[in-house]
Specification:
The complex is a heterodimer of chains A (198) and B (365). Chain A has 198 residues and is an alpha/beta fold. Chain A has helices at 2-23, 57-72, 80-90, 100-110, 163-168, 175-191; strands spanning 30-31, 42-45, 49-50, 76-77, 114-128, 131-144, 150-159. Chain B has two domains: 21-182, Rossmann fold, CATH 3.40.50.10610; 193-360, ABC-type transport auxiliary lipoprotein component (Rossmann fold, 3-Layer(aba) Sandwich), CATH 3.40.50.10610. The chains are: A alpha/beta (198), B alpha/beta (365). The interface between A and B is medium-sized, with 26 and 33 residues.
Chain lengths: 198, 365
């Protein structure tokens, strides 16, 4: 009897100690609580930074991102040529990571309410032993053009080698499919209900 | 009562049929006397362009088509210093009509000519009416590989590039002659649904029964393939002109205006460029895009891949009214015995462009 009570006490104490840690849910989404996202109607998507090996990866992901963002009907996206014209006119040295001042200038020039910047961190095939699969890892920032302030940020990683890939092989999903999933996951985070954060 | 409804339905069906054909039957008069311009080489390699043109001339002449002789055509080109022969601008077209009496021009573009066994060939032919402002009235394309249909024990394998080229030209000239004689577009070749755009946005307001003018500008090429941007623009010109609601501005006219206005679209089509081009060629819409991949291979083993994005800007509203992204690999959807494999990038690109054009025109499958 005494042993059972002692064990229950230990479990209870452990629960009490770990409960705050468990509830501190870390997410990869930042959303400015004071921002009125409904006011954003036109966005410019800046060229994505490319940390992958293939040089056209950033353009590939950007094109898919723009097309899918337009098809959601949530916002109007300026054509890439128009954004390129604005970047050339302002002579931005690093268009993939513009400063807040540059964002304000770009937004004013293009008449955009917000500018989206992004980074493709990983793209293509990953290998582990004899198993291969496609992976994409990217992050996106939505910056308000009026203030140059980041109002939303999220990242997404899809694909990679799963348990079933290791067990049965198969090579995972095609890289384009993985890209679509990663982009859709970002839209879920942007357009869906706010996620619980720390 | 039932009979009259059936008659109305049949009449409507017949009226819609020409628009569904492979060859365009859009606005513009059907030419009867044509000039065949030198063949444009977009392959990036060596191609027997003179031989291809001669075959084309022979087949058209054999079919009884009135074709201008080489002498007067060369004299005209020398007189007017025509150096660009892959298209025609409005002043040159008018001069050609007045001086030679021709009312149409045939342009041939060869995209791929690979002699290594199994050979591969891909080309596009378009007919431009010059009775008024130059407009594409018919276009067709073909992409073939020697091992497309090897058959039982590979008995149907084609090793001779000349045989493959002759087959490709037979198909295209047959289609062209049929159009010139009857004005009817040939039956549409089916495009597999796997080649649909992977994502698209459409906000095109197209009234039924009205023809809209559309200018196609060369795509920005980020691929390793030389001339990939021109190839994609050509394919969109070819497929959009198949729809009666679009009147496609002859690419030579658009090119001339781009040169005159000194427009260079390094980063893609901007609103200002679209506005300028649209105003100069009197187009309601301007279509452009980017090619990220256009991969062919030599020999028997390899993989093809095509990846591009398309944007259409409406001149009136200065807004994007179409945006799509398409990407496919040659092995997409291939399950058994290599059935359905695309052995040339053209085979895929033409179907991808076809299905994109269908969606642009508002035809949901």
């Amino acid at each position: 009897m005494k042993t059972t009570l002692g064990f229950a006490t230990v479990v209870l104490v452990l629960l009490v100690v770990t409960a705050p840690v468990c509830s501190a849910q870390v997410t990869d989404v930042y959303r400015d609580p004071n921002m009125d996202f409904g006011s954003i109607q036109t966005v410019a998507v800046a060229p994505f930074a490319n940390l992958a090996r293939d040089q056209v990866v950033a353009d590939r992901v950007r094109d898919v991102f723009i097309s899918r963002l337009l098809s959601t009907g949530a916002v109007y996206v300026l054509p890439v040529g128009e954004v390129a014209r604005g970047i050339a006119k302002l002579e931005l040295q690093s268009p993939a990571s513009p400063s807040p001042e540059e964002i304000i200038k770009l937004g004013t020039l293009l008449k955009a309410d917000a500018v989206i910047t992004g980074v493709v961190r990983e793209y293509g095939e990953v290998r582990s032993g004899t198993t291969t699969a496609n992976i994409i890892s990217m992050s996106i920032q939505l910056i308000e053009a009026g203030t140059g302030k980041v109002v939303w940020s999220a990242s997404s990683t899809k694909g990679g080698i799963s348990f079933w890939n290791r067990l049965f092989g198969g090579g995972g999903q095609p890289v384009n499919k993985v890209t679509e999933e990663a982009v859709d996951a970002l839209f879920d985070k942007l357009l869906g209900p706010p996620q619980k954060g720390r | 009562m039932w009979f009259s409804r059936a008659t109305v339905a049949a009449t409507l069906l017949l009226a819609l049929l020409p628009g569904a054909g492979a060859g365009p039957a859009s606005a513009g008069e059907r030419p009867t006397r044509v000039a065949v311009f030198p063949v444009e080489n977009l392959s990036g390699g060596s191609v027997p362009v003179g031989e291809i043109r001669q075959i084309l001339l022979d087949r058209l002449a054999a079919a009884g088509i009135d074709v201008i002789d080489d002498g007067p055509l060369e004299a005209f080109m020398t007189r007017h210093r025509v150096r660009y022969t892959a298209g025609i601008d409005a002043p040159t077209a008018e001069a050609l009509r007045q001086e030679t009496g021709m009312d149409g021009v045939v342009f041939t573009s060869i995209e791929l000519f690979n002699e290594l066994a199994p050979p591969k060939v891909a080309l596009t032919i378009r007919l431009v009416s010059i009775t008024d402002a130059p407009v594409v009235v018919w276009a067709d394309d073909v992409g073939m590989a020697g091992d497309d249909a090897p058959g039982w024990l590979a008995l149907n394998l084609v090793d001779d590039p000349q045989v493959l080229l002759a087959r490709a030209l037979d198909r295209l000239t047959g289609s062209l002659v049929a159009y010139m004689k009857t004005g009817e577009a040939g039956p549409a070749r089916e495009a597999a649904s796997k080649f649909r755009p992977k994502s698209s946005y459409r906000s095109l307001a197209v009234d039924a029964g009205k023809a809209y003018s559309i200018a196609v500008v060369p795509f920005v090429s980020l691929s390793d393939r030389r001339n990939a941007g021109d190839i994609l623009a050509l394919l969109f010109t070819r497929h959009l002109s198949a729809f009666p609601q679009f009147r496609v501005v002859e690419p030579g006219v658009t090119r001339r205006q781009l040169l005159d206005a000194r427009i260079i679209m390094d980063g893609g089509l901007s609103l200002g460029d679209a506005d300028t081009v649209g105003a100069l060629v009197e187009a309601d819409f301007v279509l452009g895009g980017r090619v990220l991949r256009y991969a062919d291979y030599e020999g028997a083993e390899g993989n093809t891949g095509v990846e591009f994005s398309v944007v259409i800007i409406e001149r009136k509203s200065r807004r994007v009214v179409w945006s799509s992204a398409s990407y496919n690999d040659g092995g997409d959807g291939v399950r058994f015995f290599e059935r359905g494999r695309s052995r040339t990038a053209h085979t895929m690109a033409t179907q991808m462009a076809r299905l994109t054009a269908e969606l642009i025109a508002g035809r949901e499958r």
